[in-house]
Amino acid sequence: MEIIMPQLATSNLTYQATGRSIINGIDWSLEKQEIVTITGPSGSGKSTFVRLLASLLEPTSGTITFDDQDIETLDPIAYRRRVSYAVQQPTLFGKTVRENLAFPYQLRKKPFDEQHAVKALQTVDLGASDLDREITSLSGGEKQRVALLRNVMFVPEVLIMDEVTTGLDSDSKGSVHKMIDYFNDRHQLSVIMITHDEEELKHAHNLYRLADGKLAEVDQHE
User: Which segments of the protein form a coiled coil according to its record (predicted)?
Assistant: First the structure.
C-alpha cells in the first residue's frame, strides 16, 4: 500500500513571544490539493501559525516540513514562491493592474504573459479591459482580487490567505472563492484560509479551530 506523504506538516510546533506561548506543540498536516479553513478567537494565534508556515516567523521549537523536507533547509525565496502568503490589506503599486500582474514576471526576468493574465482576471470576474485600469479606480474588493492574482501568476503549490475576505462585499467574496476553486481544480493548488465569516465557515471543506495555542479539527456534521 502506497504511503502518501503530506505536502506541508508541523511536528510539535511551538512559538513563544514576550514570554508567552502563542503556538503550543501543534501536530498538523496538509495534503496536496486540500482546502483548509482555520477559525478561532481573535488573538488566538491564527496569523502567527500561518506566518510560521510561510517562513515569515521562526519557530521556538518543533519543525515544519514541506514535501518531507525541513523548511529550514530550503532556500527561503524559492520556498516562498512555492508557499505563497496573501494578507488582508495588500499593497498595490505602480499605476495600473497590468503593472501589478507583470511584477512576478519581472522578478523572474520573464516576459509578461498577457493571455495568462487575462484568463486569471476572468476567474475573479474581471477581464482584459481591466488590465490598464488605474489602481486608484479600483474598489476595495477589486484591489484584493488583483493582489490575490499577483500571488498566483506563477501558481504556487500552497496559497495561504490570512483573512483576505474580511471587509469584502458578498460579490467580491464570491469572486475570491471562484478563483480558489479554479486554481484548486486546474492547478492542484492547496489552500489554507483564515476566516471568521459565518457563511465561509458553513462551506468550509476541512475546518480547524485554533484556541489556547492548540489546533483542533472541527466536526462539521455535529
Answer: none
What span, in angstroms and rounded, lies between the C-alpha atoms of 49 and 19?
A: 17
Contact of 66 with 79, CB cutoff 8 Å: yes
Cα separation, 126 vs 220, in Å, equals 33
Any idea where the domains of the chain sit in the sequence? 8-217
* Contact predicate 63/11, CB 8 Å: yes
Q: Which CATH superfamily is domain 8-217 in?
A: P-loop containing nucleotide triphosphate hydrolases (3.40.50.300)
Q: What is the pLDDT along the chain (222 residues), one digit of tens a residue?
A: 556 789 999 999 999 998 899 999 999 999 999 999 999 998 899 999 999 999 999 999 999 999 999 999 999 999 999 999 998 777 898 899 999 999 999 999 999 999 999 999 999 999 999 999 999 999 989 999 999 999 999 999 999 999 998 888 889 899 999 999 999 999 999 999 999 888 888 878 899 999 999 999 998 655
- Tell me the CA distances in angstroms from 216 to 57, 67, 121, 161, 212, one per residue in order: 22, 22, 35, 19, 11
